[in-house]
Amino acid sequence: MAKIGVVGAGSWGIALAVHLADKKGHAVKVWSCIGAEIDMLNEKREHVDKLPGVKLSENISFTKDLAESIMGMDLVILAVPSVFTRSTAKQMKEFVEAGQIILSVGKGIEENSLKILTEVIKDEIPQCETAVLCGPSHAEEVGRGLPTTIVAGSTKKAVAEKVQMLFHADTLRVYISPDVLGMELGGALKNVIALAAGISDGLGFGDNTKAGLITRGIAEITRLGIAMGGKAETFYGLTGIGDLIVTCDSLHSRNRKAGFLMGQGKTMQEAMDEVKMVVEGVYSAKAAKALADKYGVEMPLVDCVNSVLFGGVSAKEAATALVRRDSKPEHEVLEWTE
């Protein structure tokens, strides 16, 4: 039995806590900066707002003291929204031992620095080892113990293997990968494409449109990822196309839901207020466009989403402009024989 801390008591943090406690028998301690949330979890033994119906076993304890969720832990999971990664890591630094593994399970790119989250964590906690967990894995399903496949990534194989060992179970198959950059880019940028997929659904478009968005979306993510040093295999795997499919097509997806509401005519803020959870794609959209500009990569879907979110363009206008772009070959590298 291992001792594992979870920093952040949102739906994903709680779902992972449930998996680790129930399927693996680990002792899990969960921290939240919201005192009322910890009180509710202690009293109800259930996150009634974000993961209703999923009961929390006695192997899971809750604390308002950040140090208690970090000191002496075999693994610390950082499960806060990406926009709070740096500020939370700053608070964690004094409690983290040299070589302690911080597992990032958020998905995003820091808007100002354009860094992936493990880079942000390493900035603030240089003495730690970092790892990441990515893949098609909605909290609502992991919390219920439905079969899920995911990837643990780290630049150090031993670190990735330790995360794999701690999580791998009969309901959660865990692969490992050294391509942390590719994994994190796939996890962050798929949320932007999921907003586009939701907008498409909100406009009343069909399966043909959705399939096109997913396929062209992974093409955009792959182009940028390779330009930045990621590996093509990563984007064609679980943390690329796998994560993109589930986020674009699932009713669990907050990014798809926010896009759907915008497609129906709501503003970005109205959509975020109705979803009632952090919509990571809204925060990653600007960073994705900035990275595309920095590396000279064409990303029309990302441009389209940004125009709706921040440019005052209606969803319908953006969709029309996207389709009316100049015709071109699907794959420029393929050669004609005649």
Short recap of the structure:
The chain is α/β, with parallel strands linked by helices and 338 residues long.
The DSSP helix count reads 15
**Quick one: biggest sheet?**
8 strands, mixed
Please state how the strands of the largest beta sheet are arranged side by side: 5-2-1-6-7-8-9-10
Q: What is the mean pLDDT? A: 95
User: What portion of residues belong to β-strands?
Assistant: 5-15%
Verbal overview:
- Helix 4 links the parallel strand 7 and strand 8.
- This protein has 15 helices and ten strands.
- The chain has 338 residues and is α/β, with parallel strands linked by helices.
- The strands form two sheets. An eight-stranded mixed β-sheet has the order 5-2-1-6-7-8-9-10, with helices on both faces. It has a two-stranded antiparallel sheet with strand order 3-4.
- The radius of gyration is 20 Å and the shape is globular.
- The model has no long low-confidence stretch (mean pLDDT 95).
- It has helices spanning 11-22, 35-44, 85-92, 117-124, 139-142, 157-167, 180-202, 207-228, 232-235, 238-249, 254-263, 268-275, 280-295, 300-310, 315-323, and strands at 3-7, 27-31, 46-47, 51-55, 60-63, 75-78, 101-104, 129-134, 148-153, 172-177.
- Helix 7 packs across helix 14 and helix 11 crosses helix 12.
